Structures are given as structure tokens and as C-alpha cells.
User: Fold this.
Amino acid sequence: MKIEDVKKIAVLGAGTMGPGIAQNYAMGGYDVTLYTRSESTMEKAKVMLHANLDTFVEEGLLASDAAKRVLDRISYCRTVAEAVDGAQFVQETVAEKPDVKVALFEELDKLLPENVIVASNASSLNPFKFAPERRLAMFTTAHWYAPPHIIPLVEVAKGEATSEETMETTIHLLNNCGKTAVRLEKFVPGYIINRIQILLNTEVFYLLDNGICTPEQIDLAVKASLMPRGMVLGLVQRYDFTGLDISANNITNASYVMPETSKRPKALFDHVDKGELGVKTGKGFFDYGGRSAAEICQKRDKMLLKVFKETKEMINEKI
Assistant:
């Protein structure tokens, strides 16, 4: 399947990620079908899509008539067969459960022509283990990050049997939709960013559990150093500016020992045990003051859009 052959995209799964992913593909000019078997999930997805596009209009990223055209490109389906009918590209984003993935991939194998690309949003699970063998040449990943309608990154991993044309078409398609597609030559659980975040989590909970600082202080320190610097130097090029010899000496001297990973960090589970689950309950590490999840997410989206508007040119710029 070549990029010029892709006209219609099926997004399978309308939960946390589906609506934003569908929005991205529709904003790229593609006809999109969004599938979920649940009527209530579908209604929530429609509300989310309208709210997302309202935010884009308010922030000057889309004209109101353009937002309407995006909505007009998206249709909604309650069966997989209807969703993938006539699609040249399928984006899977159903629940991260092996039995759910296997059942969907088996159904797709019966429904799809051989030349249709299937891209999985699976994160920790290895989707290549669940795909039918005869489909593997046309199978890859398109791993998005929340909120998917704003975060530029999508990680595209190559399976052992994935064809080069499948990789090129998937990356080209994502780039056409304004995303930053990053290629991985092989699948690894968690891809790039989730693996880095897991290491960060180990330190975050060590600092909190040992009373070294508060959540507010951690976030302030990161916002005032690591994250803005990363827009310019990333994580690897930073070593060139520090000096590789200095970094090598730090490793040789072993003055820092990474804490053991706790399977039950107290700072996290104390909140969970009290039912303080974050934005969806109005309180987690931070108190969201009785505002609705929709209000909080809309403010988050506007702040993220401002950041990415200001730093967009830096993502691919090199020193």
C-alpha cells in the first residue's frame, strides 16, 4: 500500500485515545470511521471531538468552517465490518488486553484485503505476537501519546516481517497529518518515551516516599530546567555539550546509585487507597478545586497548544 492509495482510515476504539486520533487523521484530509461497540462510549467520543475542535478554533489553529469539515469527514460505526469497509489503513486502539487484541486481529484478517495496513497503538503488549502471520508484512505500530490531538510524537516500530513499504507509508501518512513520526527498527515494550518515563517514575517516587521534596517542587524543578532544555538539546545531544569525558567520569566514579524500583510506592498508593485518582476524581497529587474533568483537560490542552506553537520549529531543528 502506497501513501497515494490511502483515502479512508478506520480507527478502532473510541475510548481515551480514539477520538483524538480520529481528529488527527481527519485534519490530515482523510475520511475516517471511528468504531466502538458501546453506545455510551460513542456519545462521549462525539462530545470530546466537538470540545477538541472548539479548542482548536478558540486558539486560532482552525477556522470554524475548517473544524466543521473535519467533523464531516468522521463517521461513527458500531461494527468492525462497517468501520473497515473500503479502508486502506486501519488504526487499532482497543483495550490493552491480549484476548481483546487477538479477537480483533482475527476479525480483521477475515474482513480486510491483503494490501490494507494495520497499525497498532499497543503500548506494553507486543502486538506482533497477536497478528496473524500472513498479515505481518502489512502490520506495524503507530503508538500515540495523550492527548493525541496535541502531542506531536507517534512511534512507529518495525516488526521482523514488516515490509519497508508499510513503514514508509505509515510514517508518510502520520507526517501528512502533522505528527512527528519516530521510527524504531524493532519493537520493544514501552517504545522510547514510556521506557524513559518508567525510569523517571522510579526517581519521582523515591523522592516523594523519602520526604525529600513535594510534588510541586519536583514539577517546578523539571519545568525550570530539564524540559525546556530538552526542546533544544534532547537527551543525547546534551552529552556533547556537557563533555563526554565528564559524563564518562561520572559513570566511572559511580557516585550515584539508582534506587530500587518499588512495586508499591507509598506516595502513589496512599492516594489510590483514598480514591484520589487524579483529574477524573478531582484530586490526586494535586487538588483540582471541584472543576470538571472537561474543564481541566481543556485548560491543559490550551497550555500544551501554546507550548507546541512556540516550539514547533525546534522539534526538527539541529544545532
About this structure: The chain has two domains: 3-184, 194-314. The first helix runs from residue 18 to 27. The two ends are 36 Å apart (CA to CA).
